[in-house]
Write a structure and sequence with these properties.
It is built from twelve helices and seven strands. By secondary structure, it is an alpha/beta fold.
Length: 344
């Protein structure tokens, strides 16, 4: 079993855990010097015979983990890998519990779900509950402790783990968000924190990192919506005098949607879902197929709101976009820009 520990501002308590796991339980220890500010602990790690990888400067926990995975993959390691943070909050028993679960469930990612001997403050419980619910809703992954910094990975997942986005603590969240797409199963085992462990830092900020993909999607959709909103009136003004078959509203919706869709497709592909390696043709066909489906829903909802109820066209447009937003996000994430792990 291999244990990876990125070190930037490490707690000296973590050294006791590393020594116990190495000497008594036979763990191989890999320490990643992520611009470590406590050189004494690096020297101690060297004296203990641990492998030390130097990043040269502080790059973040995600980059540190990926550097370790790359090193292990180059060495041809076929053992499970456990990653912990540098705070010394996870004791030997917690890490052994994750190690046991990795042995019992080959090919599965294991998350150490933290439990405390004290009652968590409201903001921590709220962040934990909201994060868990959002992860289940957006990625289909059911984990209670989304912000845990104790993860165990099978060796078979290392190639995919090196491709997951994220430089800092958001890296572990991105793993949880993407494991379904990569077809890597995930499970959670309860682990007890050390008695003197600190409560999670900035729980609400960490929770917000989980919402980042939806936030970026919202910005992209909002920008496309503004383009669509403005062009709808422009095209309708142009088409009204032409007396087009099926009415000017339908053709105005089509024209405005085509322009905004080209913008939205490009931004989502390059910035939101980071699907540059997926062929433009394949993702384009899926995306514009979705556009056609949404287009008809868009037209019929607009017609219903503005002509049957009736509601002013601009208000009807806003109501329609709100209803179509959620469906569009999930279809694009899990179908249009779905990224499959490459096989080595």
């Amino acid at each position: 079993m291999i244990l990876v520990v990125p070190m930037y501002e490490p707690n000296p308590l973590v050294m006791y855990t590393l020594e116990t796991l190495n000497r008594i339980h036979g763990f191989t220890i890999v320490v990643v010097d992520d611009g470590c500010r406590v050189p004494a602990l690096l020297r101690e790690s060297k004296r203990c015979g641990y492998t030390i990888l130097h990043l040269g400067r502080h790059k973040g926990e995600g980059e540190a983990c990926k550097a370790a995975f790359g090193y292990l993959q180059e060495k041809g390691v076929d053992e499970p890998v456990i990653c912990i943070n540098e705070l010394g909050e996870f004791g030997v028993d917690a890490i052994l519990a994750v190690a046991a679960a990795l042995g019992d469930r080959p090919g599965t990612i294991v998350v150490g779900g933290r439990t405390w001997n004290q009652k968590l403050p409201f903001k921590h419980r709220m962040a934990q509950e909201l994060s868990s619910r959002f992860l289940a809703m957006s990625a289909g992954t059911k984990i209670k402790d989304v912000q845990s910094q104790l993860h165990g990975y099978p060796a078979s997942a290392l190639p995919w783990l090196r491709k997951v986005d994220g430089e800092g603590k958001e890296y572990r969240l991105n793993i949880l968000m993407g494991n379904k797409e990569a077809k890597v199963p995930i499970t959670e085992v309860p682990v007890t924190m050390l008695a003197d462990s600190e409560l999670p830092r900035r729980p609400l900020l960490n929770m917000l990192r989980l919402y980042l993909p939806v936030f970026k999607f919202s910005l992209s959709s909002f920008a496309a919506g503004v383009i669509d909103f403005v062009l709808l009136d422009v095209f309708k003004t142009w088409f009204d005098p032409l007396r087009l078959p099926l009415g000017s509203l339908l053709w105005s919706v089509i024209a405005a949607r085509l322009v905004s869709s080209f913008f939205n497709f490009t931004v989502n592909r390059l910035l939101v879902f980071r699907a540059r390696h997926i062929s433009v043709g394949r993702s384009g066909v899926k995306y514009f197929g979705l556009v056609i489906v949404i287009l008809f829903f868009n037209y019929w909802l607009l017609a219903f709101f503005s002509e049957v109820l009736p509601i002013p066209l601009n208000v009807a447009k806003i109501m329609t976009e709100v209803l179509l937003f959620t469906g569009s996000y999930f279809v694009q994430r899990f179908f249009v820009f779905r990224q499959k792990a490459k096989k080595n």
